[in-house]
Amino acid sequence: MGIEMKYALLVFLLSFTLYRQSCAQEFTDTNLPIVIITTTYNAPIVDNPRIIASMKIIVRGNGERNYVTDQSNPAFLNYNGKIEIELRGSSSQTQPKKQYGFSTLLDDNVTNNNVSLLGMPAENDWIFNGMVFDPSLMRDYLSYNLSRQIGEYASRTAYCEIIINGTYKGLYLLQENIKSDDNRVDISNISKSDNALPNLSGGYITKADKTTGGDPIAWTMFSTFGSSIGYIHEQPRPEDVTTAQTEYIKTQFQLFETAAYYGTTSVSTGITAYIDFPSFINYMLISEIASNADAYVFSTFFHKDRNGKLRAGPIWDFDLTYGNDLFIWGFDRSKTDVWQFSDGNNEGSRFWRDLYRNQLFKCYMTKRWNELTKPGQPLNITSLELFIDQTKDIISEAALRNNALWGSSGNYQEQVNKIKSFLRTRIDWMNGNLVAYSECANIAVPPLVISKIMYHPQASVEYPDDDDLEFIEITNKGAQEINMEGIYFSGTGFVYQFPFYSTMKSYSSVILASNITAFRTKYGTNPYSQFTRHLSNKGQRLVLADGYGNVIDEVQYSDTIPWPGADGNGKYLKLNNPDLDNNIAANWSVSDDILVSDRSVFQDEELLLYPNPFIDKITIEAQSDIKQVFVFDIQGRVLCELSSDQKNVELDMHTFPGGMYIIKVTTTEKVYSKKIIKY
Predict the structure, then answer these.
(1) Which range among 234-248, 545-559, 626-640 shows the weakest confidence by mean pLDDT?
(2) pLDDT at residue 337, rounded to an integer
């Protein structure tokens, strides 16, 4: 046996002996999952680079106690494999208790291994949050759960206790790292080659933050007082982003900033043209009820899907909240009686304050606040206190061990009571400082209904990518023509916004397809338009909303009983009658009827566009003289215009890429807006 091998064996035996002694004397069992990490040769975990380790997660099941000795029983191991681990955080690294980032690996010590840890969706990128600045050990846990309860994604979490190289390290929060994933930030991935629209439009994850993590600032924006706020690429990573991508996403923020400054709320040119209203409202309400001292300046994330709007979130790093701050360094900013977006000190980009100053945005923010604070709702004080008490019951045993280890002082119950007291006062203050919301209380929404859903088509030799045949149908069940401008699918995972100047006639339907070419080939007719991303094969919540987030229609379909069987068998879900409640499974049936295009949706006998779809040129024919023609892309940007004094105009678009466009035709009699499709 060589000297190196003998040394390694000696280190292993010594560390194992110390490990056995440490566990036997200090920590043997708990009501929480136990994580045991052993680095190669017991090497210390550093900030950079990551090092290889093995990890076991012991969990017997809900309500069961877990024992360190269970590490030898495969039946009780939630995970038993390799990881790559490092220290994480910036300010937290100054503290004795450390935080860690890690990736789960295959046994080759190189390849990422997507696995489910403690019931969370499978992935490879994880964090052990040490909650080093939070004496209650529950502020992040509380806030992330609240964000998910009000309908926004935030990292899933699970408490655990950790042993590293035989030494007990205390109570931790295992949580998902922020990244693009169907089960996390549900947006498209973007590559270095995506430098032209539509792929250039997403997906992006961007954060306002400090640069202590080493990533460079991509651009800066300014607060109302002129302080500089740095924006950093999270996706694509700074080392991968192209100049075109940086310019695109920066421009989206700048356009939004300008719209917020001028306070315009037009769905075509105002705030809602650039941002998802509900996500910004939800983000601000969670940040403000917590009085997050870092809100809007640090750890402030945004994301934008391909062809989608800019969305706020997910929330992150909520330890300096509910009255807590970095008291050890003289800070005391989390107060019950200030708006964190406008506290005169640690303020974010000026668009946050401008949003609140916009009366319509403030109206919807107040309306949402009143919804969320009603009895039984997540932000109601009774609901909050119940959740806090339930969390305390889960972690109180481990909290005592953690505090004894790291020298935390004070009564733990007192820390819990401080959060409750803070929330009572904070909620009262917010109730007294938000405006009335009668202006946006009872908004009439158009009678649109999601009436067909092809969510899992049947794969075949002709259509091996069955996702290309997905479609949904939307029906106007009313007697009036509807202005569709600004209407979109909110949330993430399914992206579509009706183009500017679009309308839908009474008692008509439109079909949105996953792939226009595949749909046309399969069904022999053209869909109205093409959506981005795909429908889930398992089930999904589809929410059709107006530009301000007012829900027009929503459906939560599923591939399981009692929903009819339309899962991969060539059939689609069909609402039996547009007047029925489409959230009730019994009101749907399955169908494989031939689809026909409802030409009444697209055609107007007074204006003819042909051929449509077209290859290079399209002819416009009207009953009165055509004065002006504009062509817009799906984002509403003017691409070309021409003037005329004739009833017949030929438009040459051979230089334009294939896709959907909106054409606006002004005649001496009328203004028309139509959809055109170029092959």
Answers:
(1) 626-640
(2) 97
Fold match, 448-600 / 603-678: yes
- Nearest Cα to 86, choosing from 164, 199, 27? 164
The pTM for the full model equals 0.86
Distance CA 196, CA 467 (A): 23
- 433 CB neighbour count, 10 Å cutoff: 12
Q: How far apart are CA 562 and CA 589, in angstroms?
A: 11
Q: Decide if 160 contacts 32 (C-beta within 8 A).
A: yes
Note the pLDDT tens digit of each residue in 651-673.
989 888 877 788 889 998 888 88
Q: Tokens 């007294």 belong to which residue?
A: 432
In the three-class reduction of DSSP (H, G, I as helix; E, B as strand; rest coil), residue 521 is classed as helix
In CATH terms, is domain 603-678 a member of 2.40.50.140? Answer: no
CA distance 678 to 639: 14
3-state secondary structure (DSSP) of residue 247: helix
Q: Where are the domains of the chain?
A: 3-176, 199-372, 448-600, 603-678
CA distance 636 to 240: 29
CB of 548 closer than 8 Å to CB of 273: no
Evaluate whether 644 touches 612 at the Cβ level (below 8 Å): no
Q: How far apart, in whole angstroms, are the C-alpha atoms of residue 89 and residue 99?
A: 7
β-bridge mates for residue 590, sequence order = 573
Chain-centroid distance of CA 182 in Å reads 10
Superfamily of domain 448-600: Lamin Tail domain (2.60.40.1260)
Tell me the three state secondary structure of residue 619: strand
Buried/exposed code over 50-68 (b: 16+ C-beta within 10 A; e: otherwise): bbebebbbbbbeeeeebbb
Q: Give the bridge partners for 474, in sequence order.
A: 450, 510
Q: Cα(557)–Cα(543) distance, rounded to whole angstroms?
A: 11
Give burial (CB, 10 Å; 0-12/13-18/19+) of 652: exposed
